[in-house]
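re the bet — no i am not wrong, look at it urself. input seq straight from the record:
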Amino acid sequence: MKIPRLKFAHLPTPIESLDKLSKVLGGPRILVKRDDQTGLAFGGNKTRKLEFLIAEAQEQGANLLISGGALQSNHCRQTAAAAARYGFDCTLVLTGEKPEHASANFLLDQLFGAEIVTVTDRKDRDRILQETFDNAVKAGKKPYLVPYGGSSPTGAMGYTFAVEEFMYQNVHADWMVFGTSSGGTHAGLVLGQRVFGYEGKILGISIDEPEAQLKAHVSELASQASEKLGERINFTHDDVLANENYCQAGYGVFGEGEREAIHLFASHEGLLLDPVYTGRAAAGMIDLIRKGFFKKDETVLFWHTGGQPALFADKYSQELLR
């Protein structure tokens, strides 16, 4: 079955060995898959998803992309860039107090020409997102709603085929570790593992969701996504590995674990993480290494899903060197 896809991501992304960090932590060998280098607007994991989502929007005759997220959303930054590149108007519904001075992703959204709607209370975001969509239809526009994080069966295709890409790179990894939140990356990897025969384990470090909720959502999303490839595969909760131990502080709350992870990656490998997703996922991975969760003779592949522009947001930059 042919799935509509545009090809604008810089693929395949490289895999690098983090030898110094591996030695410092004294645990397994650590590799990194550089999905921060996918190319679109500073890159990141959403670029893979948008190759499929933008193609679907084109097929539906849309002329406006609407999406939502946090004020410093990496997904929204890449969506706005894709809209600019492919001739769509773009409206973003962002949660948070509008800052006096735009910085980081919020600045980039505006450079890409997106119209910004800010929502103070996250509980109101879904309602206002739907109202924005409905108002666009009434105004004669043809909107396409890009789901939060690009996490739909269509968006999940990005990481289904990322597993195929990894398999062609012929690099051994016993584990894949990454940050998981809206579930599209996680579901795509789980489906790709089944379809392309990856024999290792796939562990999502939760950014903000309870483990049971993640397993339910990711297994259902992977099942739905499988239908795009042919006959449905019914994934269960047991097919999904997730860890909720590092998200208790809440979404986007910068803590000591994130700070240490960012400093370790930067000072030993010259590699920048972001404060929300890869910082938290790496903090979880580092703690699990120290606790002996991974065997010392194993190899762990860390998927770097991007997000570095958020380092320059005022709320995080002031905390990094504290």
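see?? The first strand starts at residue 15 and ends at 17. told u. also Residues 3 and 228 are 7 Å apart (CA to CA). so pay up
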